[in-house]
């Protein structure tokens, strides 16, 4: 039995490996006693020209003999059962109609062609290559691996090109890879010449340094040579396996300044194939004139005038292994691997058909009948076996496996080397995230370049920035905008910045959220310590003044204006100074409640005491007449009732405040950058301002009464001091309100403490310091006699 093989194109030494793969498979099968018992497999080889007018010439010779009479042969019987078509799908299309007339099984060993998968149009055709459905995913995976997101597309203008273009667009869109430019390449020479200048200019002007080139040899052969010569350097070419044939010797001799990365079908090594090629020579196959020509041209065998090559004049140990890899590659190519599987598929089909025939009655005179090619189809469709390399071979396209890809890089240093090196692999059967493996160190980039090429429309936005799309451009083109305050981006090319949680803040680089530190006016910090010292110093001063008053309680200046009220005011002022300590330190529920209630009560007592003292001065001046009601009020101690009455009102307001919405511990994470302010929330602001307003009303009343009584001529009249003290008090608190509401954090608390200390110090210094001055430094004035001498001196007329 024979298989018939057709190879397209002229004779190229590197394509001769396809012939050797066919011979290797046939010899291996014929040696196998378990396959095709008592039958020898053979083959004939014909050239199938790609030119349409001569496409059927050799198939007619094969089918009809040298007479070239269609549908007639002088051969006694035909024993051909299958045809192995060439590397191009165009060959199968051109001869497919003719072969279908005879139902000849046609097995193609080129790349998988979806156009040939239409069973109704090509019912007798079988593709040996695995499905090419994951090529787009494999290419995009490589783009993602090198962070290339700005890519040009050069696609053949045929059915396969349109199919891969749609797949590429879909996968690229999902992975945010943009197309910088796109060209459909026509197979017509005239159209290529017209468009090639446009393609060249756009590629050279584009910032995209990566090109995906897809097509078969017929489309891209001339284009590849042209691009290799005239394009700017350092472009990376991502090619499908057929484009490997387009990169010819001429390209490499010109010097490759580009980086071809070829996606070739992965296959295991066939044991014995390299040894078989190493032993091939013209003496072993004397009828093979192709081999003789290869030997003659490669090894400079001498010959005589008769043009008869004398093999004894060739090197005795010459071998195809001696040839450079760009001339002849010893490693089995994917086309040779498909031929090897195709021959085994035919042999397996014949074997199954023979087994089937042995189970049926013999025909004719009892001799076994030679099967027709049409009888082989049912068995080929169901073929499924593992070859000697362990790979599964399936001809039925519905059950055919998806392709795995070897990623090849062509080394051309030194120039002209043209060595294919496997630098990676893609397998769609591997777990997600592990489908692609690449050895970057194995890649030979463009000549004079050691770094990985860059192909992006816009540089990546680092941490602290976000992408801002450029209007009217692809999504890969963007500007980098810094994150706003309290937002971060901790990765590259972030679409949006992330807002930091309330208890964290963004650092200055806007790439990390840091925990906020608790902020409150602590006793340990300088400001807190200063305020503590001031409060304690004034409290001590108040205690000293109380001691002085106790020691000199019988003196006129101490007795004036009601000694009891003076003691009450001094003790209250001491509490006013000490209550400021409640505002310093980490707030808690108890201190928050005590801060406002004690502040309101002690200051109410202090202001109401000042009011009582002022009223006492007024009553003392107006109670000089015997039997006057004012005298009765003064003697009865009526001014002393002002304090409990005013205090009771404030206690009622504070009670309502605590009963409805008391103060509580709160946090403020927004007012101060990098800090969480721990503060006391006032609870009910209405209650707070009622307490403050009531205190302000008392202060205003005290100031008014004191101001009206400031000039009353009474012994030791302190109305002027009371007036000035209340002026200081009101000024402090009127200044406090706007400053308090504009401050933040611990400064706000410090302002409130300062206001408490300043107003209390104003009352203490304005009312009691002058008295202490007289008591301690001017004792002569602390008597009625001294006072009268002062009066007389003041009234003495000048001489």
Automatic annotation (TrEMBL):
Gene3D superfamilies, sorted: 3.40.50.2300, GPCR, family 3, nine cysteines domain
Keyword hit for Zinc-finger: no
Pfam families found in the cross-reference section: 7tm_3, ANF_receptor, NCD3G
GO terms for cellular component: plasma membrane
Membrane association type: Multi-pass membrane protein
GO MF term set: G protein-coupled receptor activity
Residue ranges occupied by any G-protein coupled receptors family 3 profile domain in the UniProt entry: 527-791
Main location (coarse class): membrane
Alphabetical keyword list: Cell membrane, G-protein coupled receptor, Glycoprotein, Membrane, Receptor, Signal, Transducer, Transmembrane, Transmembrane helix
Any coiled-coil regions, as ranges: none
Localization per record: Cell membrane
Signal peptide residues on this chain, from the entry's feature table: 1-21
Family matches, as InterPro entries: ANF_lig-bd_rcpt, GPCR_3, GPCR_3_9-Cys_dom, GPCR_3_9-Cys_sf, GPCR_3_C, GPCR_3_Ca_sens_rcpt-rel, GPCR_3_vmron_rcpt_2, Peripla_BP_I
Domain of life per record: Eukaryota
Residue ranges crossing the lipid bilayer per the database entry: 529-552, 564-585, 597-621, 633-658, 686-709, 721-741, 753-776
Sequence similarity: Belongs to the G-protein coupled receptor 3 family.
UniProt protein name: Vomeronasal type-2 receptor 116-like
Native organism taxonomy: Eukaryota, Metazoa, Chordata, Craniata, Vertebrata
